[in-house]
């Protein structure tokens, strides 16, 4: 169970004046159960890449293996792929369409041909996962819920398909800090419970630093950096040159070093920074 | 200093499913000419409802809103008010109307009945202000999010407003797009003396404001200079809001008995203060 991408290239509007190379000979592998963060500024190819993962876009050249099946091959049934790879788009609440929360979440499982009882179970489970109270909300119209709740209904609709791979394109964009933390917490809990493979696209370096095992950095259709958050966030110059940043706290440690306060540089969270600084201050006073 | 906006005991309620929702609860607020005010608060706290009152998109159920002395309830003044107080929304795609950048920016002034030669001048000036001159003849849909948002801003500037209300203009942008837009907003305030009311979830964007207003359940619950507001880390967290990472760090270090000021807002201030402990 893995995603393997081999020499993937995607060209929009080929052989026309608008020709754009969106993905340029990309190769990498995501292992079963990994939590990967995908970052890159707008236009770097992130969205083009994730749309290949469930066959919404076909490669111009190259191969994409999902569980060892090359989904770019002609004979592959895309329905099977899409059952496995759940894609949560940006602003997924714009895709809600049903009269009730229940019907909206049940739409996917019903199309899988599941029985009535199984569908109820799936809807209930997915609502539990995103912390939406089933009894209270199932008969409500999704359109009268708050923004954060609508977002969670949309995510529940994807979770109800029980995908092995969950791809989320900026799931917290536009949410307030509390809504953001709740959704990320739920994605993290789900990942820990069922060990699914998660690919998270985000512009928040702070969130990425907190959550993922590995970061893939995209720039101009290529993978420019790949590694653990500690490895990737060390490359401040590279990240800044491609319009990205590092968590503020990591930046603080770098600035301290420039001012001759030499503390650990691969700091990702406030807690780690606090420990380092306290150690340093106590060391000073003992000296 | 002159008052740009006066919100006087404003209440706004509406019914949803036969349930009455009080979106604004007896709010009083003044914004001076040239001020840079940031409004924060979680989703549903009433920020956007308040913003929509400031250029008469919504009218108060009770109380009054005045823009440069004009009451928003006065129907005859509504176009004047909207010309004084422009608005930029979260999604630039919803605000851009034309297929060529310059035509989009000309749309507002054209509707004001301004003569063509002046429109051309206004378009050039506005593009220059948002630093997008080279995109004058491009199609907006081919631009990045930050660029599109700057075009939307240029469209508002072309109306020559005294005040611009930004309703989460950076929520959909990547870090570099966000920087571009924030830089533009600050420039409008400093160089063009435009009064700014900026609604955001990104606390870093509030650091340079003259004043920060925190909303919760239709009320203003905290108000003051960024330093005063952000030093109340616990209170902000209760309200489901963030503080900048370094402010949070300072707060935690103080609790450990380390001698730091409560109002650290930026990385540089933190570095400076830690250097003094050396």
The CATH superfamily name of the largest domain in chain A is P-loop containing nucleotide triphosphate hydrolases
Please provide the ordered H/E string of secondary-structure elements of chain A. EEEHEEHEHHHHEHEHEEHHHH
Oligomer status: heterodimer
Low-confidence stretches of chain B: none
Helix count, DSSP H or I runs of 4 or more residues of chain A: 12
The largest sheet of chain A, given as strand count, sense and whether it forms a barrel, is: 6 strands, mixed
Strand content of chain B: 15-25%
Strand order of the largest sheet of chain A: 6-7-8-3-9-10
CATH fold topology of the largest domain in chain A: Rossmann fold
- Kindly state the percentage of residues in helix of chain B: 25-40%
Briefly characterize the structure.
Chain B: Belongs to the ABC transporter superfamily. Chain B: It is a peripheral membrane protein. Chain A has 287 residues and is of the alpha/beta class.
What key phrases describe this protein's structure?
heterodimer; A: 287 residues; alpha/beta; Rossmann fold; six-stranded mixed sheet; four-stranded antiparallel sheet; 12 helices; 10 strands; 42% helix; B: 278 residues; 10 helices; globular
Question: What's the helix and strand layout?
Answer:
The complex is a heterodimer of chains A (287) and B (278).
Chain A: E1 3-12, E2 20-30, E3 35-39, H1 46-53, E4 61-66, E5 69-70, H2 78-84, E6 85-88, H3 101-111, H4 116-129, H5 134-137, H6 147-159, E7 165-169, H7 177-194, E8 197-201, H8 205-211, E9 214-219, E10 222-227, H9 229-233, H10 236-241, H11 248-258, H12 270-286
Parallel strand pairs in A: 3-8, 3-9, 6-7, 7-8
Antiparallel strand pairs in A: 1-2, 1-4, 4-5, 9-10
Chain B: E1 3-16, E2 19-32, E3 36-40, H1 47-53, E4 62-67, E5 70-71, H2 78-84, E6 85-88, H3 101-111, H4 116-129, H5 145-157, E7 163-167, H6 175-191, E8 195-199, E9 211-216, E10 219-224, H7 226-230, H8 233-238, H9 245-255, H10 267-276
Parallel strand pairs in B: 3-8, 3-9, 6-7, 7-8
Antiparallel strand pairs in B: 1-2, 1-4, 4-5, 9-10
Helix pairs in contact in B: 3-4, 3-5, 4-5, 5-6
